[in-house]
Task: structure prediction
Amino acid sequence: MSTADAPLPEAPKILGAPPKILAISAPYYRNVVDGMLDAAQDIFAQVNASVEIIEVAGAFELPQALAIAASAQPAFDGFIALGCVVRGETDHYEFVCTAAMDGLMQVAVNNRLCLGTGLLTVDTLAQAQARSRETGANKGAEAAVACLKQIALKRRFMS
Result:
């Protein structure tokens, strides 16, 4: 079975109350990002998570939004960041991808956040579409599973 035909992953078991999740979406490529968001919501529904969705202008703003949301009260149990950057003809792609990914990791580590990252950095729109379909290797679903695994880990070690 190819990854294009693979079913979406299953959510890990989460102990305690259903998690509260913030999904930060940069819908510059709306169809791609919405496909990832739909799959992520399917994963979160498996554990009865409540999901709040916010939109930012683009991938560059994802870490900034995560930093702002990290101090929200009541706190979120976990976060996902979803976006897509398609390579163009200039160096802009490299700058945006590096800054966004480094920024997300820095904010998550510094604040001990449970973060699943679904920021596609691709050469073509077709590659992005292949990673955001209803079935197969949907990176939104993978980001949701990663987020939930981090929540489970945090609850195990910090409770």
